[in-house]
């Protein structure tokens, strides 16, 4: 059962907490092989217990400054530049880096490093519009709208071509300047956007910037832009671990196939499920099931913290959050859940991820401090048309409570242990947990106004 496995009332089983390896090979089994591939309930329960976390390892709430990992002051110390695992993931995934900073702040240095690390990177810049066939840069402020339109057209084209790494190399001081690229990423081509601001010590120093920028921008104008940059504070609606398209499709298909086999493939469960979601007397179950759930997502994620419009929340400024942006982590898929409201997978978070994970709903439903933090971590695969994506987390927490209180029955199935909570609510605890890499980033609004 994963993260909610702890001391259970009326049970002889108790979670065994151990050290989970930092690096886990993809699709490795945490169980010894069983000859008939039908593990018993006790074996599965023991595995689920081993996937739990010791609450003493991670304090409640977000990590404080003195707990945070140290951030080096190097101007190129970004995970997507220095972390080997992240670099490997980005090279095979669709990522769009949106540069943000004043002229002379160090953006070009970062862009050149991205191009060096990721061959085939496409750089889209409004500045390129002013470079003539002779290679000479001739700026004309009256043509700026044309330059930005051209930049957006090139970005659209490169996204359409499926280029793995795209860089938007503009100042992007105003939020609305980024909106077209965020819309391309989120809504059209399913890229993962990463906002990149230089780490240089002079990035907001007008005097230094006036000397360093290549466009002869005056100190007064730069100071004005510095003020604008401070005014236009950019914060995500939520933070999370985002999977690429290929892996998203794989895990969604896995969950959907399990739903077909376990629920639809069983006559009794199918009849109960159909009667729960359809008022018709003898409906065609294939039509009902397909129309009941929204289509699968092209790119799924595990939410770390939903903040909405809380731009002054301390989470945005936490050192470990800032240091983790643009970094790849492993998501351990430990179970698959089905309810009339949602289909999803549960995620087991490691200690470093738990420091980034904030879910107030868990605290509300914690029973005597015995249910683990991080137990509601999940990926939504499908939800009913009348529901929003948050319902998956609610279903997971309800299952944790029911398991804690012994309100379930168990059956073996080909994938592991099938837990039946009643009322058409099921969970498959996987005998072979899955592992996927995912990029920690933010989800930003894409409808900023001028």
Automatic annotation (TrEMBL):
EC number(s) from the headed UniProt entry: 3.1.4.37
Places the protein is found: Melanosome; Membrane
Pfam families per record: AAA_33, CNPase
Catalytic activity: a nucleoside 2',3'-cyclic phosphate + H2O = a nucleoside 2'-phosphate + H(+)
Entry membrane topology: Lipid-anchor
Record text on subunit structure and interactions: Exists as monomers and homodimers.
Role summary: Catalyzes the formation of 2'-nucleotide products from 2',3'-cyclic substrates. May participate in RNA metabolism in the myelinating cell, CNP is the third most abundant protein in central nervous system myelin.
Family membership: Belongs to the 2H phosphoesterase superfamily. CNPase family.
Matches recorded under PANTHER family: 2',3'-CYCLIC-NUCLEOTIDE 3'-PHOSPHODIESTERASE
Protein name as annotated: 2',3'-cyclic-nucleotide 3'-phosphodiesterase
Provenance organism: Sinanodonta woodiana
């Amino acid at each position: 059962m994963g993260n909610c496995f702890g001391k259970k009332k009326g049970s002889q089983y108790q979670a065994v907490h151990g050290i989970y390896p930092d690096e886990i090979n993809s699709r490795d089994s945490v169980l010894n092989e069983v000859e008939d591939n039908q593990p018993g309930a006790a074996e599965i329960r023991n595995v689920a217990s081993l996937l739990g976390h010791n609450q003493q390892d991670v304090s409640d709430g977000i990590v404080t400054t003195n707990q945070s990992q140290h951030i080096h002051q190097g101007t190129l110390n970004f995970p997507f530049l220095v972390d080997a695992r992240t670099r490997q993931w980005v090279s095979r995934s669709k990522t769009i880096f949106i540069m943000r900073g004043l002229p002379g702040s160090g953006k070009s240095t970062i862009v050149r490093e991205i191009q060096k690390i990721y061959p085939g990177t496409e750089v889209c810049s409004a500045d390129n519009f002013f470079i003539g066939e002779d290679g000479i840069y001739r700026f004309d402020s009256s043509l700026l709208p044309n330059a930005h339109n051209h930049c957006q057209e090139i970005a659209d084209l490169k996204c359409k071509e499926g280029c793995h790494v795209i860089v938007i190399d503009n100042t992007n001081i105003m939020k609305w300047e980024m909106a077209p690229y965020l819309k391309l990423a989120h809504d059209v081509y399913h890229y993962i956007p990463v906002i990149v601001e230089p780490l240089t010590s002079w990035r907001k120093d007008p005097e230094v910037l006036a000397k360093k920028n290549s466009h002869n921008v005056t100190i007064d104008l730069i100071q004005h832009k510095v003020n604008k940059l401070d005014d236009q504070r950019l914060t995500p609606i939520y933070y999370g671990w985002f999977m690429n398209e290929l892996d998203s499709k794989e895990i969604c298909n896995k969950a959907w196939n399990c739903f077909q086999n376990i629920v639809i493939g069983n006559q009794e469960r199918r009849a109960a499920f159909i009667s729960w979601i359809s008022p018709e007397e003898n409906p065609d179950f294939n039509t009902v099931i397909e129309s009941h759930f929204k289509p699968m997502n092209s790119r799924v994620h595990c939410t770390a913290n939903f903040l909405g419009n809380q731009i002054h929340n301390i989470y945005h400024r936490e050192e470990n959050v800032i240091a983790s942006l643009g970094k790849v982590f492993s998501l351990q898929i430990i179970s698959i859940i089905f309810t009339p409201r949602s289909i999803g997978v549960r995620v087991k978070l490691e200690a470093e991820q738990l420091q980034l994970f904030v879910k107030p709903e868990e605290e509300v439903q914690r029973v005597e401090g015995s249910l683990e933090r991080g137990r509601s971590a999940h990926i939504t695969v499908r939800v009913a048309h009348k529901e929003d994506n948050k319902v998956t987390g609610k279903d997971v927490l309800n299952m944790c409570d029911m398991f804690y209180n012994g309100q379930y029955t168990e059956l073996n199935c080909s994938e592991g242990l099938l837990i039946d909570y009643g009322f058409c609510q099921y969970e498959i605890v996987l005998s072979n947990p899955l592992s996927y890499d995912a990029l920690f980033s933010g989800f930003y609004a894409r409808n900023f106004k001028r």
